[in-house]
Structures are given as C-alpha cells and as structure tokens.
Amino acid sequence: MAKVIFVILDGCGFDLAQECCGYLEHMAESGNAAKYCVRSQLPSMSRPLYATLLTGLPVSSHGIGNNMMSRKIETDSVFSLCSEANLETAAAAYYWMSELFQHGTFDHAAHRYQLTKAGNIHHGLYYFEDDYPDSHLFLDAEFLRRSFSPDFLLAHSMNIDHAGHVHGVSSMQRSLAAIKADAVLAALIPGWLASGAYVVVTADHGAGAHGLHGGNTPEQRTVPLYLLGSGIQTGVFVDHTLDQLWIAPYLCQMLNINAGREMRRPEVNIFAQ
Q1: What is the CA radius of gyration of the chain?
Q2: Domain residue ranges of the chain, discontinuous segments joined by +
Q3: How many angstroms separate the CA atoms of 156 and 201, rounded?
Q4: How much is the average pLDDT of 176-193?
Q5: Quick one: which of 1, 20, 21, 211 has the fewest CB in 10 Å?
Q6: Domain 4-255, classified CATH 3.40.720.10, yes or no
Q7: What is the SS3 string spanning 70-93?
Q8: Is the pLDDT of residue 129 over 90?
Q9: Residue that wins the pLDDT comparison between 134 and 74
Q10: DSSP classification of residue 227
Q11: Number of H helices and number of E strands within the chain?
C-alpha cells in the first residue's frame, strides 16, 4: 500500500514558489518531479480552501465559506476515506485542520498533542500561532512519520502566509520564508522518497498586492503543485492549469483508495503511462 505525505505551504503563490523554492524547482527541472499550475477555488481564504483541498469539493458543497466558520465538516475527506479503508493518518498542522476534520471546537490544552489513535486524524500535533517556525512544523511531521508510520501524513506550514500578511507580498521576509521552507523540504524529501512515499506539495492560495487574499485575481488564486514519487509522470507541465478540486482525488489515487462520492474525476493523468 502506497503512503502519501501531503505538504501545504500556506500562502505560497505560484510565482513565489518559482522564485524562491529552488529545491522543488530543481526536482521538476531535472526530471525527478512533476510541476503543475493550479487555480484555487473561491473564496481564496485559508479555512475554505483547507476544506476544499481535503474533500475535493467547492465551498458551495462543503459549506465552509469564510475563515470564521470553525465547525467540523461531515462530508467525505481524505482523512475519513483513509479511516474507512483502515489506513493510518496523521497531521502536523495549524489548529484549523483539527477543527475541520477532527475535534470541531479546538481545546488548546487538550487537543494540541494527540498521540493516541482517535477520530479520522489518528495522530496529530497542532499549533495555533501563525509564526510557529516552519522548521519545527516539518520536524513535527517527521516525528509523526517515524513514530506511527502513517499511510497519509499532512504537513501544513504557515510562515509564508504570515510573512505576507505582516510584511507584504513583495517583502524580503515573505521570500525568505519560502526559501526556508524549501530548504527544510530539501533535507526531508529524499528520506521520504526513499521510504517509498509519494510527496505532494501545494498551497491553498497566493496573495494580492497588500499581502491579503480572498478574492478573484491570479495572484491570489494561482498556486504550484509538485508531485514526487515512483510512477509519477515527471516534468514541467504548466501550460494547462489544473483545478484545485482534483487534488483530493489525486491523493486518493496515490493511496489506492476509493474517492469520495462527490469528488470530481480529474481530467489530467499524473501517472506515467
């Protein structure tokens, strides 16, 4: 059974990744990864797009229409589908992921560390400060991988998005956050691939001129997608923009589990013929 490590670089637009994520760009350029351009759903806000990335559904279907809606969603998600297929799941992520897919309202003392198997996210390490270092976050994910060997592992970092909000979309701080995240991934991804896992790296949204997001402009909606692992058709495929709704069914394909009942069938094949 294949394993998948799903990395969300929160707020990392396509142009920023191309400018600053030299390791990921190298892997695609050298024929060791696939690189795609993805158009995010609307609104281009974090919590609605977390729901979309992991359910394959638009806001009008999953119902999380803004960042203030903190309820647990009941529709199929990659986490719930893994649980139904008896696969192990884990997440090192911002606490909104816990609220959406695990706990509902987040209890900071009770829910931050979840190391005993429960719910659809069987093991979780959640943070709640936007400046929680990405270096720590990715090592939280590595701890979960080494400790529990999950079939599906989410690693969700926040520093790029935070830097954009605080310092602006064209700031050195935002670029540096992307460079740092890419550097940590450069240290971890070879080991992940050696373990036989697929690695999927994308973003929820980009950012507009003031470091904000939520609306319908290319800067806010265009994000990268890097795919690594055995059987992936490698190369740079950015002439055709993929639909963000396809990410969840792609994850299901990699995990070899049935997609959710409402998930769309992707129109682009990511696997080598």
Answers
A1: 17
A2: 4-255
A3: 10
A4: 98
A5: 1
A6: yes
A7: CCCCCCCCHHHHHHHCCCCEEEEE
A8: yes
A9: 134
A10: E
A11: 12, 9
